[in-house]
## 1
Amino acid sequence: MTLQQLEYIVALDKYRHFVKAAESCHVTQSTLSMMVQKLEQELEINIFDRKAQPIAPTEIGMRLIDQAKVILFNAKQFKELALNEKEQESGKVTLGIIPTVAPYILPKLFNILQERNPNINLHVKEITTAEIINQLEKAEIDMALLATPLNNPNFLEIPVYYERFFAYVSPTEPLYNIIKEYEMNHIPTEHLWVLKEGHCLRNQILRLCESNSGFSTTYEAGSIDTLIKIVDTNGGYTIIPELQLDLLTEEQKANVRPIVNPEPNREISLVVRNDYVKERLLNVIAKNISDTIPENMLDERLKKFSIKL
């Protein structure tokens, strides 16, 4: 069994086509096919069902491929550990980020990296929390920026910033000119617009309102921008994160109301696997992310100390 064979089965699973998998590995189709077959013979297991169209892993094959991804990740980490001794600040980094954070971080982050660290090739996946956890566990992404805690012993969480929630209220609501702030347990649930299933912010909002009776949602939107436009056009309420405030027009900012007693917030952290070894590169990414955030929102530990793995 070789790392090369593991690369071949991972590629074949990705492309489900011998020719395309071979091309991605820069070998001939016959070489890839022969090496996969030798691995199957060594293990005495069929990793792929060749009768399927397109070719697909068997049930045990899927488990072996998931493990192969982790082994390949650790082999890469082994090399990176040596490279870290040279204080390398280059290479490809795959970052997972949740959709309710991406619009505020990514535009500035790409700009900062281009200016400061042009040798870092940042590849970003904007995906849900569940997808991020799955891909981190399979070592398909290097790090992630999402709401924590995750309570997963396999991950290291580095808090970056803490973000408050605010109510965004339509001027057509009866109490618009009367209530200047909302107590958390008295947020109106009639005409409350929320994100669709799969967004962690949706779950946080529903927890904010779970003590209220008469919860009624008429539409679940796919983005916070959409929620705001819905409120502007149809009335009602929504809940928005603090970083959204800078993206509002002056007219829209008049529709924002604080939430108090207590002030709800979320922790946003940079998360890696416990076996991640590229300490210097992690610190570079963390520093650049923190520089996109207002200083008053930053976690004090990240402002003062580098991250030790």
Note: The domain at 162-265 is CATH 3.40.190.10 (D-Maltodextrin-Binding Protein; domain 2).
## 2
Amino acid sequence: MRVPLWGACLAASLIAARVFALETIIINQGYDNPTKIAVVPFETLDSTDAGIADVVSFDLARSGQFDPLPRENMLSFPARIEDVFFRDWRILGIEYVVVGRLRSQPNGDFSVAYHLLDVFNERELTTRRIDAQPPQLRDVAHSIADDVYEHITGIPGAFSTKILYVLAKNAGTSYATYELKLADSDGARARTLFESDEPLLSSSWAPDGRRVAYVSFEGRRPAIIIQDIVTGARSRVAEYRGLNSAPVFSPDGNRLALVLSRDGNAEIYVKDLLTDELRRITRYPSAIDTEPSWTADGTGLIFTSDRGGRPQIYRIDLTNSMVERLTFEGDYNARARLLPDGKNLVYVHRRKGTYHIAWQNLERDEGIRVLTATPLDESPSIAPNGTMLIYATQVGGRGILAVVSIDGRVKYRLPSAEGDVREPAWSPYMDAFSPGT
């Protein structure tokens, strides 16, 4: 039986209310026995709380695997290893403690030093110092959370990553607007990359984390755009007659899989971004082939096709054009994405007339596992460490983003008060301190 992660819920709601103007993340469900951790407020010379510890706690709480101790329950506030009394933390049931210090430098930058301590073994697991500019303190916090997460779980953290999504305001009216937004992985610090009076769709990331591709209907016809998120420079890479949709970068970033109807039927193509060469991949005139995504080695594509009568997931080998059907359970499976291990697949699955996100192992015949329970779930996108996925859903008739772990045990929502949120895309790993990100 699963039980709610009440400690993490409380910590997340308190932190979200007071740090960096975050919106409240609603943690619906977590692990039964989350790891007890205390992230002590970082020491500063002027006694000003920069909020670093709160963001670290918030990140760990939303992973569902950690239960951070609220600061009001802490018995002391050490900043150095020699100030830590392990017995006090054991009394509180804490397994790990993070302590640290924030110091300003003569040039106006900050230096942040921290230690991760194993309470029961009374030892230091890691220590690190990060120098950063004042606007980067939140990036520092995400980086610390990544480090802590990896040292305890053995899995790289993904808190320093970003998300893309489309914000639709007044959709369906004559004054509708659409914004392509870039935000931290927790939805904070959102900024607009591009705004249009016409729909924006199908955003995706290049593996370098610097470029994004999307579909824009500016000019009243669909075109595929690649935009540099640092400079804002935009280029049109596909504006053929008919449909131009579903762009996805190859793992090396040099090719773009896309869907075109330039030859009369919706088919999948690959465009070489270095040479502009366009290669048609699928040839099935009586079916719609769409929603491509790449295999990890770049030698194949996963895609949706109704060539069997209903939408199902297929894989095509780009070296020999051999096609294999991957899904058989249910009459609707679409928008598939492979996990980084290449062995597991997530996709939109219709069950009893309702659309959910489902998981399937491609090597073992285990059937499918439905991960979500909200209605109209769509557009899954996987975190680069393969532990979580973000998707679009509806709550109270409004589009929001939600996150679920790959095993279905952790769930939380990212509400938005601005409008309908849709089409999320989780970034690859990227430099947390890069300009413009």
Note: Confidence is low (pLDDT under 50) at residues 1-23.
## 3
Amino acid sequence: MSVTIRLRREGSNKRPRYRVVVTDSRSPRDGRFIEVIGHYNPVTQPPTVKIDRARAEAWISKGAQPSNTVKKLIAVAAKAGA
């Protein structure tokens, strides 16, 4: 089983919210997930990013592969100290 860290879309039309989830790579985008480790809201000014970096690092150390977008969000969260 290949595990990835990626975004799961929520919210209504034209008002997206995303959860940062750990999931099996074969699951659909909004399908089953293992754990929610954060959230991202691009609608707010400035965009809100909250990620539990300890859990993200724990999953990455176990072999989970973050998506390109999640890598950037983790860097933004680390820079903001969130």
Note: The longest helix spans residues 68-80.
